[in-house]
Amino acid sequence: MDNFVGFNKEASDPFVGGEKDVDNSKVHIRVQQRNGRKSITTIQGLTEDLDLNKITRALKKTFKCNGNIHTDSELGEIAQLSGDQRTNVRDFFIDQEVCRED
Predict the structure, then answer these.
(1) Which residue in 26, 24, 33, 27 sits closest to 79, CA to CA?
(2) Rounded distance, CA 9 to CA 18, Å?
């Protein structure tokens, strides 16, 4: 540990410091396989200040699919859409500036 006497951990960590106003939470878009060719796309991790009801309604109308909001005690609110909508949801969120690509 003598080599790290002048080592500043916060300066070398790219995830510490930097832009303070940027929210680094991640949005998870997953597909759950049901029976046969059926699948469900789940969206989790959106910030609390966004209205998930309006977002789900816009996604359903744009992609012409069914969907709902599932409330989990540990994970919070999760939006579910029928079918494999991963790329559509990703492009929609980037176009509407709901979240960034990275």
Answers:
(1) 27
(2) 14
What does the pLDDT profile of the chain (102 residues) look like in tens digits?
A: 455 554 454 554 444 544 444 556 788 999 999 999 999 999 998 888 889 999 999 999 999 999 999 998 888 899 999 999 999 999 999 998 888 887
3-state secondary structure of 46: coil
Q: Name which of 82, 80, 83, 101 is nearest 91 in CA terms.
A: 101
Residues near 56 by beta carbon (within 8 Å), at least 6 away in sequence:
67, 68, 69, 79, 81
Give the C-alpha distances (Å, rounded to integers) separating 49 from 14, 36, 44, 55, 91: 26, 37, 14, 12, 21
pTM of the entire structure?
0.70
Q: What are phi and psi of 15, to 5 degrees?
A: -95, -5
Could you tell me if 37 and 77 are in contact, meaning their C-beta atoms sit under 8 angstroms apart? Answer: no
